[in-house]
Design a protein that fits this description.
Shape of chain A: globular
Largest interface: A-B, 61 and 61 residues
CATH superfamily of the largest domain in chain A: L-amino peptidase D-ALA esterase/amidase
Structural class of chain A: alpha+beta
Oligomer: homodimer
Number of strands of chain A: 14
Number of helices of chain A: 11
Chain lengths: 373, 373
């Protein structure tokens, strides 16, 4: 459970899937009703509570109402996130029996325990926090996430939570968080599927900040969210490295994003990287099907420090050396030195964007072929 | 080389990728110029001749001009298709030296040799022909294809050719072939990438048929094209079975298609099938992200003869029995008894569609991780 201070404002972004879980409906409706005045989030891991019919909604309503009455807040101020197997309902009496214990153990030092409790197939906890001095005060932003791939309709997927001790007006906070998500959680892919339960909830509570510092605050929110998003991509099922795709020189950001995300999501790019193959043909072919116009002669391409294409023409780099660089990244440490950078310049426009993904390995197949609901 | 009779009409459909090979540009331009009056197709396997700059176009022009002069036809009547590694030009002098031999060996019985010569990573030849009695005469349709996955930007991908000994006016033929392709080659996926060289050329030549038989002719064209398309999906890299996804009851065909193709392309559905896991959660989750509205309570789902969902509710089928059925399909014979059928009813509308794909195995990863340009 997360508990936010009285007066908190919460902005949420959710899965685009039509088949979203009842708890997602509940979050969306309550945030609309209360204009973002949320106080608590109840989270369960193991059962997605998606495709469970009316029972899904009944259980979510009941659990949040119970928690609200024990916390002495309004039911509309309690949100719920579930993650786990689709089609499986929450063992509701077990959940209700645990609420008192949950409230008793509530603690400002409980972040790590919570970050651990929300995991499913994840191999590592995902937490990040930063402090910044803005407008003469210390500003703190913290976050945690779970997800071992952008999408796992089974161990249904990505949840992330952020807190910020600056009070930001509701509408402005919504707009900031939307931009932050576009540059973080919406820029990662593991296998292209979307889950039924994806949710990101960002809380703002505290003294307001002078308007001139809001841009810097947004940079901080973006940094925390990008760290968590990258941690999810890096922990993608079967992954050995994080892939960062930077596209520059497009007509605008939206076109740059489409190219970057298409490259990061290409199975053939992901397997080439897994095989330590500096295969520029697959990278440009993926860019070519992104639905964005650019000229072949304008493409320059780098893999890490090595240039593969200069204005459409292959460079005479030593394949062996580049392959060794890739091997080193693939055997690197989690989020320390395991990043493979693909940088593509597609023209001289102002549009830049980044996307993140991971390599595609035999282990991904085994995890997903052997995993049984 | 394919040679069509004088007076032939050719309709072509090509890759939607921005980065298409020079030979694709050449085909598109010549078919437009001549209103489909093509006579010959020169095909090379091994070099995609894509991303090869001006040289790519110069080589394609030179090869087709040489062939035209030796066949004593117009250069505009000669088309060219290349398949192979991106970024590698055709060894043009070797190709030109072989033209006389190619013309000498031209034969009506040469179909099999041609179907074999166009292969790259394919494991099997893909040919199909049928005869039908229409309007008091025998009508013949034949086809061949190569492709081991919808997409292989490296061994760049799908080529298919069809001949029909019925003369059909150019514009009508174009429209028929477009509909045929929508129900065949556009309904298959192996890994979601698009190649630089995808081409389908369909020739019509001979006595015309009374208008009342044209619908039946189109059924024949569709059957031949669907056989070839399914053969490509089944021969997808690392595949052990063909997956057929039938979606029924959508608002229209276009919505049914989006759902069917999204399911067929889902990595999580493909790995579940590879693992013989009747995992309905992944199938409905894929449908949910297809961008098409339907009600959860309207979904019924079958895997082969077994029903998994009835109007949104799970059926109490024996998982072991369904898993054994899947195992049998995965070890079945190529295009004989290796089909896994997924059928989903999403409502009571008139929109039905089919898509084809294949399972995703560790072998796909090894083929694409180890394969080096």
């Amino acid at each position: 459970m997360l508990l936010a201070p009285a007066g908190s404002i919460c902005a949420g972004t959710f899965t685009q899937s039509l088949l979203r879980a009842a708890c997602v409906d509940l979050c969306v409706n309550r945030l609309q009703e209360t204009l973002g005045k949320a106080r608590a989030v109840l989270i369960n891991s193991g059962q997605a509570n998606a495709c469970t019919g009316d029972l899904g909604l009944i259980d979510s309503l009941r659990a949040t109402q119970e928690l609200a009455s024990r916390l002495e807040i309004l039911p509309e101020e309690v949100l719920m996130c579930s993650t786990g197997v689709i089609g499986v309902p929450i063992p509701i009496s077990h959940l209700l029996d645990s609420l008192n214990e949950l409230i008793d153990e509530l603690s400002e030092a409980g972040g790590s325990a919570a970050a651990n409790a929300i995991l499913t197939t994840d191999l590592v906890e995902k937490q990040f926090a930063l402090e910044a001095h803005l407008g003469g005060r210390c500003v703190r932003i913290g976050g945690m996430a779970k997800g071992s791939g952008m999408i796992h309709p089974n161990m249904a997927t990505m949840l992330a939570f952020l807190s910020c001790d600056v009070g930001v007006p509701s509408q402005l906070w919504q707009q900031m968080i939307k931009r932050v998500v576009d540059r973080s959680f919406n820029a990662i892919t593991v296998d292209g599927d979307t889950s039924t339960n994806d949710s990101f909830l960002a809380f703002s509570a505290g003294a307001p900040l002078a308007e001139e510092y809001l841009d810097e605050l947004e940079i901080g929110l973006t940094l925390v969210s990008q760290y968590l998003a990258k941690a999810i991509a890096r922990d993608g099922e079967g992954a050995n490295c994080l892939i960062e795709v930077v596209v520059q020189g497009a007509v605008d950001v939206s076109e740059a994003r489409r190219i970057a995300r298409t490259i990061a999501g290409s199975s053939l790019v992901k397997t080439a990287i897994h095989g330590c193959d500096p295969n520029w043909g697959r990278i440009v072919a993926a860019a070519g099907r992104a639905g964005v116009f650019f000229k072949n002669d304008d493409i320059s391409l780098w893999l890490g420090p090595y240039q593969l294409l200069r204005e459409g023409k292959p460079c005479k780099e030593d394949r062996e050396i580049i392959s060794r660089y890739m091997q080193k990244c693939l055997s690197g440490n989690y989020l320390v030195d395991d990043l493979i950078l693909i940088r593509m310049v597609v023209g001289s426009g102002p549009g830049d964007a980044i996307a993140w993904g991971c390599d595609l390995s035999e282990k991904y197949i085994r995890i997903n072929a052997d995993y049984t609901t």
